[in-house]
Amino acid sequence: MDYDEVILGRRSIRGFTPDPVPRELIEEILALAMRAPSSMNTQPWNFHVITGEPLDRIRAGNTERNLAGVPHSREFRTGAEKFTGTHRERQVQVAKQLFGAMGIARDNTEMRHDWVLRGFRQFDAPVCVIVTYDRILDGSDDTPFDCGAVSTALVNAAWSRGLGAVINSQGIMQSPVVREHAGIPDDQVIMKSIALGWPDHSFPANAVVSERKSVEEAATFVGFEH
Q1: Which residues form the Nitroreductase domain (predicted)?
Q2: What are phi and psi of 131, to 5 degrees?
Q3: How many whole angstroms separate alpha carbon 190 and alpha carbon 196?
């Protein structure tokens, strides 16, 4: 599979088969991902790869706390995350695409709520990768960028090996549950979670490809006219 196929064909996978993913394959994917650039080669990232009963305990704990109304306790925060304007429009658009694919009506609050809970269950994937960074770097401008780079590299590496993935924040919003069952030490900050597994090609939402703004909208070229 070449680079164009990986990038242009890649979409977030939200439905997975229950088939296990071999540890050796995950190690190979992580080795590829960790070639991602980092500021002055600091490599601030750590990975906690969870499957089986520990992951089931995280799913259950996340779900129970959310249904009980326990406030979210995401560890990495930079401020408000309520989108407005064009950014909100894009958020709404992809939600419409997903709900349309899944046949979830606008007034079906039960199915919409269950869809949200899928994120807290890591989309029922057989593997969850928790990305953390060293707490000594907390407050660094570059560390979040570096963790984003390695997360994107991990997803692309997974796709190149036939796996699917989705980067999400819901899976780590009840951080005490995640920290306990993943065995994350206090000297690390929980950054993101990545659901990982074999794509279920019969799951309708997996066919959704989010719309992208054009290069003309995103890029400004200077000096090329000469």
Answers
A1: 7-198
A2: -95, 125
A3: 17
